[in-house]
């Protein structure tokens, strides 16, 4: 309450009291609103930052040039507006990759488990589904504390291993570079695995079985290219159509093949026999393996969830990583 001096009239006293109790000018109100808005945005960014993969570094697999020369068109994304959507969204179709790279997406310091996974997108050795089976996979791996190394290997290839070893050489080089930088990237060199889709799943299987491949004229590398574990999601090229009765040439599991996770759908047009035959061969070689076969799912769904149970496979892989002691700590089963 304002008290007026004796010489001030009652009317003047009322005017002064009204002035003192009036709201602040409009510019002051706008200022406080802006401050509160920026604070809310800053807090939100801090909360979601650990969930978004941060691109740490990109390295050329062959800084001095790949073992085989390339004379094709420049790298490009050939995605068209008419391409089918996956999970209601388009996907990237990279092709003419002549300078293969790896890109490291590190999990946050507070969640990093020390494990790492090299990810190989699919695309029939013609293109790379670089977001559907690449960057989106890194987001998930980071969310469970795993460093993601996304491999952009060379495509297109008219033939793959064993007729053409260039795909295997890219995979070997990516693994060796990752192990060479393990300390720098804060990962355990004994907990580095591979995960691939379709043609990329074929490539990780080949790497697991032929990590010591070397061209006669190539120098010997002292860094081991063999992954510690393999996850093959809707693999292709592990068996040959139309017979689908035996493994394809060059798919040769032995007792030294890494522990393996396999997933495929019965209605996959690429054929579920890829996973079935390879699982049986792993069993005969006494390699620990886990197989998940679903009635429906088709091919090329990546991590984009639908009503079909198979599209929730990332949870199965996470549990498997705990089972084989790549990840530690408690795990809740679905």
Written account of the structure:
By secondary structure, the chain is of the alpha/beta class. It has helices at residues 10-21, 26-48, 131-143, 166-180, 199-209, 273-284, 313-323; strands at 54-60, 76-77, 94-95, 101-106, 116-120, 147-152, 192-197, 229-233, 259-265, 289-294. Helix 5 (199-209) links the parallel strand 7 (192-197) and strand 8. Helix 4 (166-180) crosses helix 5. The chain is globular, with a radius of gyration of 28 Å. Mean pLDDT is 88; it is low at 40-53.
Q: Write down the overall mean pLDDT.
A: 88
How much helix is in the residues?
25-40%
Terminal-residue CA separation: 65 Å
Poorly predicted runs: 40-53
Largest sheet: 8 strands, mixed
Structural class of the helix and strand makeup? alpha/beta
Q: Helix and strand string, N-terminal first?
A: HHEEEEEHEHEHEEHEH
Overall 3D shape: globular
- In what order do the strands lie side by side in the largest sheet? 1-4-6-5-7-8-9-10
Number of strands: 10
Strand content: 15-25%
């Amino acid at each position: 309450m304002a008290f007026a001096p004796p010489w001030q009239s009652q009317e003047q006293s009322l005017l002064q009291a009204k002035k003192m109790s009036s709201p602040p000018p409009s510019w002051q109100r706008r200022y406080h609103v802006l401050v509160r808005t920026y604070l809310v945005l800053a807090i939100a960014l801090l909360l979601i930052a650990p969930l978004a993969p941060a691109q740490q570094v990109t390295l050329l697999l062959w800084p001095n040039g790949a073992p085989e020369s390339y004379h094709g068109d420049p790298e490009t994304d050939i995605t068209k507006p008419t391409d089918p959507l996956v999970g209601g969204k388009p996907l990237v179709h990279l092709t003419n990759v002549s300078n293969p790279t790896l890109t490291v997406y590190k999990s946050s310091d507070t969640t990093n488990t020390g494990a790492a996974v090299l990810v190989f997108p699919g695309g029939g050795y013609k293109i790379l589904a670089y977001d559907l089976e690449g960057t989106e996979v890194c987001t998930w791996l980071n969310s469970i504390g795993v460093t993601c190394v996304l491999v952009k290997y060379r495509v297109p290839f008219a033939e793959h291993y064993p007729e053409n070893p260039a795909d295997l050489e890219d995979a070997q080089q990516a693994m060796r570079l990752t192990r060479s930088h393990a300390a720098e990237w804060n990962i355990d060199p004994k907990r580095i695995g591979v995960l691939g889709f379709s043609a990329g799943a074929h490539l990780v299987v080949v790497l697991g079985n032929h990590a010591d491949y070397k061209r006669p004229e190539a120098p010997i590398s002292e860094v081991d290219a063999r992954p510690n574990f393999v996850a093959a999601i809707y693999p292709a090229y592990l068996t040959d159509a139309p017979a689908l009765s035996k493994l394809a040439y060059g798919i040769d599991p032995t007792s030294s093949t890494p522990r393996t996770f396999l997933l495929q759908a019965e209605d996959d047009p690429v054929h579920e026999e890829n996973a079935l035959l390879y699982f049986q061969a792993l069993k005969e070689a006494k390699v620990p393996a886990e197989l998940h076969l679903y009635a429906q799912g088709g091919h090329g769904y990546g991590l984009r969830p639908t009503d079909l149970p198979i599209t929730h496979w990332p949870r199965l892989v996470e549990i498997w990583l705990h089972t084989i002691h790549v990840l530690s700590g408690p795990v809740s089963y679905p």
